[in-house]
Amino acid sequence: MAKKKLPFKYRQKVVMERALRDRKPPPAPPKRKIDWKQWFKELPKKIARFFRDVVHELKRVTWPTKKALITYTIIVLVALAFFSVLLGVFDFLFIQLVDLLARF
Fold first, then answer.
1. pLDDT tens per residue, the chain (104 residues)?
2. Helix/strand/coil (H, E, C) string of the chain?
3. For residues 22 and 28, what is the distance between their CA atoms, to the nearest angstrom?
4. Full-prediction pTM beyond 0.85?
5. Do 64 and 72 meet the contact criterion of CB atoms below 8 Å apart?
6. What are phi and psi of 8, to 5 degrees?
7. What is d(CA 73, CA 67) in angstroms, rounded to the nearest whole number?
8. Burial 23-41 (b: 16+ CB within 10 A, else e)
9. Residue 77 contacts residue 84 (beta carbons within 8 Å)
């Protein structure tokens, strides 16, 4: 009996699966030993660069106007008051429900 020929795309798939199965992971890079003298010598430069970057990012921030800040503050305070009252009402109702169930 003659061997069946596979279509090209299936042969490609088989070849790829075999290649993936037989592939070995790349070797891990060798660990470098830390030169502590050099590390401590560069530390002040790294700290200074960090703070320069922080200042640079803060310059890019768009700060709200005074009017927008007051508006947002009022919205937060109103929402806080609303949810405080809502939580108080639910707490009162649950306490009444527990007292009612405790009587039976």
1. 556 666 766 777 888 888 777 777 777 788 888 889 999 999 999 999 999 999 999 999 999 999 999 999 999 999 999 999 999 999 999 999 999 999 88
2. CCCCCCCHHHHHHHHHHHHHHHCCCCCCCCCCCCCHHHHHHHHHHHHHHHHHHHHHHHHHCCCCCHHHHHHHHHHHHHHHHHHHHHHHHHHHHHHHHHHHHHHC
3. 18
4. no
5. yes
6. -55, -45
7. 10
8. eeeeeeeeeeeeeeeeeee
9. no
For residue 40, give both structure tokens. 């401590």
Residue type for 4, please?
Answer: K
**The two structure tokens encoding residue 71:** 């508006």
Only one residue has tokens 């030993």, namely 33
